[in-house]
Design brief:
Layout: E1 2-6, E2 27-28, E3 31-32, H1 33-43, E4 48-53, H2 57-63, E5 71-75, H3 81-88, H4 90-93, E6 99-103, E7 106-108, H5 112-122, E8 126-131, H6 136-139, E9 142-144, E10 150-153, E11 157-158, E12 164-174, H7 189-199, E13 205-208, E14 215-217, H8 221-234, E15 239-241, E16 246-247, E17 250-251, E18 255-257, E19 262-263, E20 268-269, E21 273-275, E22 280-281, E23 286-288, E24 290-292, E25 303-305, E26 307-310, E27 313-316
Parallel strand pairs: 1-4, 1-6, 4-5, 8-13, 15-18, 16-19, 17-20, 18-21, 19-22, 20-23, 21-24, 23-25, 24-26
Antiparallel strand pairs: 2-3, 6-12, 7-14, 8-12, 9-10, 9-12, 10-11, 26-27
Helix pairs in contact: 3-7
Length: 318
Amino acid sequence: MKALILAAGLGSRMAPLSQRAAKVTLPVLGRPMIRLLIDQLADQGLERAVVNIHAIPESVRAALRGAPIPIRYSPEPVLLGSGGSLRAARSWLEGSEPFLVINGDMLLDLDLGALLEQHRAGGTLVTLGVRDDPRRAEFGSLGFDAGRRLCRITTLLDRGGESASGLFLGVQLVEPALLERLPEGPCDSVRDLYLPMLRDGLPIGVWEQPPEARWWPIGTPRELLDTNLLALAELDAETTIDPTAEVRGEIRGPVWVGARARIAAGTSVGPGAVICAGAEIGTGSAIEQSLVLPHAKPRAPARLRYAVAYEKEYWSDA
């Protein structure tokens, strides 16, 4: 299977953390979120991927260096939108098999086999992934009928017959023939592709992610922090410290400390702290329920709670 990973967004909702690196390269327990996503998909049989890039493209290339599958890049000097990105990558995606389109700014449990099986059984040009999730009030929802066919797109169009609804996951399984319906130039896959299909009565499939599966969108500093803390809570060990890290302060787990990080004497780190590679925590600092990005050196004494430190500054939601 092939995939298009959508990674070209400006990351304005992630500001100020997206000023030096593309949003999709920001880390979860020290690893770029887009690399974690691709590694997971490769473990399930993804064979190659196209990644569209725009903002700070060199950071995306660096994050995916050494990826387990071949990666092609689709540069967008001018943003093309989710539909235009599909058209731009068309020559790499065409063939006889369906391909995956997935947002690069999230982590999730995705059963590719189950998605593909339902898509083939449904016989549609595209199948959209959804989940039953209370966050639908924030993100909007898609309605579908008893046959798992799309019948409503948020408040934009409702054809009736809805039996259930779900939050869109940013996951699409697409037949190459769908590319013929894309308009020229920049366009949006919902507004310019799926809305006209639904209006014309063309079937669009819906696949439901199991309710126990994870879906962690990472579009804001708070979501980045929350995802790191959730991932930290899932580790078997209360404290994970890279052997090259220098730790002289007090550690109260759960804590994760990356390579060559330095935690000075007279500091308190944790509970609930992720200190990424090369970061430095100065004397007198207290870091709790917070994330310190790679090579960040927050001004000491830093008192961080529900915060993300970057360079010498920090974002806080305390």
